[in-house]
Give the backbone structure.
Amino acid sequence: MSGPEQQPTGIDELLERVRTGYRRVGAQEAHDAARAGEALLVDIRYAALRERDGLIPGALVIERNELEWRLDPQGSHKVPEATGHGLRIVVICNEGYASSLAAASLHQLGLHRATDLIGGFQAWKAAGLPVTRTTPTG
C-alpha cells in the first residue's frame, strides 16, 4: 500500500473544483464574443440532441469523445480552427455540466482560455439567441 486511502470524489465536488480554474460565461457573452471573432463556440452535444433542438449558427460541432483530438493545436487530428493555445474556446453541452469537465480537459492540453457556457445549449435557447433547425452535412 502506498499511503492512506483517499475518499472518492463525487461529481458535484469535481465540478465545483474544475470550475474554480476558469471563469464560465453566460449565453449573451458567448454570443457577443463569437460574433466579434473573439471566441470559438464548440458544441459537444450528441447528434440526437442537435437533431431535436437545433444548432447554434457558426458553432463548430465536435462530439465530446473527439474534443481533445480535434482542438489540440499540436495534434495530428486537429481541426483547422485549432490555431494555437491562445484560442478562446467556449464549450457548449446541453445543460452546462459535461462542458465544464470538457473545458477542464482542454486546460490540461494548454488551452488555458477554454471555458464553458453556463446552462449550456438550453440557456442559449432560453435567452432567445439564434438557433437553426438544419443539421450539418458531411
Remarks:
- The beta strands are 40-43, 60-61, 89-92, 115-116.
- The helical segments are 11-19, 27-35, 47-53, 67-71, 98-108, 120-126.
- The first strand starts at residue 40 and ends at 43.
- The chain has one domain: 13-126.
